[in-house]
Amino acid sequence: MSLQKLPPVNAYSACAAVGAATLAYLGLKTLSALRYHLHSSKLQRYRHGSEPWALVTGASDGIGLAFVNELAARGFNVILHGRNETKLQKILADLEPKYKVKFKLLVLDAGTPADAKFDETILSAVKGLNLTVLIHNVAGSGDAQVEMPMFDQMTGPQFDGWINCNCRFQTQLTRLLLPILIKNKPGLMIFVSSAVTEMTAPGVSVYTSTKFYVEGLAKALQLELKMNGHDVEVKSLTVGMVATASSGRHEKDISFTMPSPRDLARAALGKVGVGGVRITPYFGHWLQFGFMTSLPSWLSEMMIISLVRKAQDQMAKRN
Ligand SMILES: NC(=O)c1ccc[n+]([C@@H]2O[C@H](COP(=O)([O-])OP(=O)(O)OC[C@H]3O[C@@H](n4cnc5c(N)ncnc54)[C@H](OP(=O)(O)O)[C@@H]3O)[C@@H](O)[C@H]2O)c1
Predict the structure, then answer these.
(1) pLDDT of 7
(2) Which of 57, 60, 63 to mutate to test the pocket of ligand 1 (most atoms within 8 A of CB)?
(3) Residue 26 lies in a domain
(4) Please, which of 14, 229, 257, 302 could form a disulfide with 284 given CB 3.0 to 4.6 Å?
(5) How close is the Cα of 213 to the center of ligand 1, in Å?
């Protein structure tokens, strides 16, 4: 049939074809989301040998403490890392009667560069333990007590605070503990990243960059481990807002898009063995990011800038 003899494509059939393709695309997306969010966790794969241990960094509050509780409830002994020994001791006294597992403390400031004692402190905390899980949760600004500063408002020590606490510490800890996870195989290493790598915002430029760093590290490590035949699973969690006290949010703020720390930790452990390296474990965040990233960039940028302006106004009123 020559081209001239083909029936004309009218507007109606073109719209129907676009509609059918869109529905098929959304259907496939929904199916893969359901498969991903309903998949059962492989966490118990890492509870092997006599007395398996997990180490959680930044474990004295928020999401870190939630990971400690969720791991202990699933039969893991846990080393809690933090910088405030008195606070950690109080937490220990609260945890011990609740669970049938053991706990240990690792007191170390993640915001200062590694000194001569760094290796010794870490290695003696894990000495003789069957460490199979490492959760890189800690993040902070070191000594930089500033809220949403623009890049040009930050000082040298503030940059160092963020980078030390969110990148250097994770890297040095991985240098020391990855060989142990490899030896005690199978092992699991989770990095807690942030939604800022999905939706970059003003006022958190250095924090955002540090989260891209841990994501990059997680992806590269996973490939190197795979290439060398090591049985260590690496995950990087893309996490949206969570109702932690330090972020100024409380129980009353918990909603479908802002889970409690326990809900977030439960969702994260529920995704072990599922998906690739970079995952969004909490369903409400997954929907939220899906919506935001489907918007044209000019619109999402406009929305984010307006949200940051509102947050800055609120902070100015509070101070
Ligand atoms: N909350 C959110 O909305 C949210 C969203 C996305 C991603 N995240 C990520 O989730 C992780 C945990 O956040 P979070 O909200 O649970 O934080 P958090 O409530 O502030 O808890 C942070 C933990 O890290 C410890 N820590 C901070 N600086 C430290 C240092 N220099 N040395 C040793 N320990 C230190 C804190 O100890 P102290 O008790 O002594 O302060 C605390 O145990 C972070 O990686 C964060 O980037 C959080």
Answers:
(1) 60
(2) 63
(3) no
(4) 257
(5) 17
